[in-house]
Design a protein that fits this description.
Layout (H helix, E strand, L loop, with lengths): L7 E5 L3 H12 L4 E5 L3 H11 L2 E3 L2 H7 L4 E4 L6 H10 L3 E5 L9 H11 L3 E4 L6 H11 L8 E9 H4 L19 H4 L2 H10 L4 E7 L11 E7 L5 E7 L1 E13 L2 E6 L4 E5 L6 E4 L4 H18 L7 H20 L3 E2 L2
Parallel strand pairs: 1-2, 1-4, 2-3, 4-5, 5-6, 7-10
Antiparallel strand pairs: 7-11, 8-9, 8-15, 9-10, 11-12, 12-13, 13-14
Length: 334
């Protein structure tokens, strides 16, 4: 396939994130789009809303629609198998986070992509948000010295995530589909590993603490210890009735504060006025930016800035946290 001939994309999964990507692909100039989903009502919606070709299965879509790129937006339990199908059909692949709900198959996927020279990117869109990118710059520049300790939080209310759907039927609420706040909320683990690298040890307390009708953990607090001595605690939940997403990074010369709701990054030093940088962006801008980067890598053959190895690390840490919570012990990663 010539990179300059990328003209079509097939979106596997016509739920909320699949619809967002269909809309953003149109924004980015792709006009030949298709979707597949086993639920007829979802296909009816995207056919009407986006005027795309529709198929009941990924296999049918790959057979009947010439897809240069496939976006895997199905429940996590299906991600690796469907990504492998797409690769073997000759497509480049964008996989929604998390990469999977298990480690089995991820290395084979990585090897298959490398063998075929295919681009594979996983959808951790926060890495494309300008405010997080600014935070990364400040950490790398040691703006308040080496970070000693980080507190990270993300909380919201699952029934509000997809108001058009009964939350009990969502994959997030169901363990058998790869749900739970640890996997679905792994954005925080991902950007923490981007900031500080691979942790050495993981401990976690997680479980169902609310009255929501789910069979997964709805609340988790993760402790991470990094080889250079940095510590981090990461709290994620889908039980907070008001949305929160922020972090504080403490160094010997002050602290860095990031707040997604305010689109801001602050440098706070003792005895000085806080230095605040505000960003005029919408959350969808990060989704558009991650797809634009994926399509540019497909077009040029360039290596993505955030690789499949990065997503595998995030998955390893996430699953280690789940194992720690279940076994009630620290888990050594390296």
């Amino acid at each position: 396939m010539a990179y300059s001939q990328i003209k079509s994309a097939l979106v596997a999964g016509a739920g909320s994130i699949g619809r967002r990507h269909l809309s953003n692909l149109r924004t980015l100039g792709l006009t030949r789009l298709a979707a597949c989903d086993p639920h007829p009502e979802r296909l009816e919606y995207v056919a009407s809303e986006f005027h795309v070709e529709c198929f009941p299965t990924l296999k049918a879509g790959l057979q009947k629609f010439q897809a240069d790129a496939v976006l895997v937006c199905t429940p996590p339990v299906d991600h690796v198998a469907q990504a492998m199908q797409a690769l073997r059909a000759g497509a480049h692949v964008f996989i929604e986070k998390p990469l999977s709900d298990r480690l089995e198959g991820v290395e084979e996927l990585r090897d298959e992509a490398a063998k075929r020279g295919a681009i594979v990117q996983v959808g951790y869109n926060l890495r494309f948000h300008p405010s997080i990118q600014k935070l990364k710059e400040l950490v790398d520049a040691a703006a308040v010295g080496k970070i000693l300790w980080a507190h990270v939080e993300a909380g919201s209310y699952l029934p509000d995530w997809r108001p058009w759907q009964d939350y009990r039927k969502s994959y997030t609420a169901r363990r058998e589909l790869g749900g739970g706040i640890l996997l679905d909320g792994s954005h925080e683990i991902d950007y923490v590993t981007w900031l500080f690298g691979a942790p050495q040890e993981v401990a976690c307390m997680a479980g169902r603490v609310s009255q929501l009708e789910v069979n997964v953990e709805d609340c988790a607090t993760i402790l991470l210890r990094f080889p250079d001595g940095t510590r981090a605690d990461v709290h994620v939940d889908f039980i907070q009735r008001s949305y929160s997403r922020y972090c504080s990074l403490v160094g010997p010369e002050g602290k860095l504060q990031w707040d997604l709701l305010n689109n801001s990054v602050q440098i706070v030093r003792p005895g000085a006025q806080a230095e605040t940088t505000k960003f005029k962006v919408q959350i969808n801008d990060a989704y558009v930016a991650e797809l634009a980067h994926f399509l540019e890598c497909v077009r040029t053959g360039a290596r993505p800035r955030f690789t499949l190895e990065d997503a595998i690390l995030t998955l390893r840490v996430t699953l280690a946290a789940r194992a720690s919570a279940e076994e009630r012990k620290w888990v050594l990663l390296a």
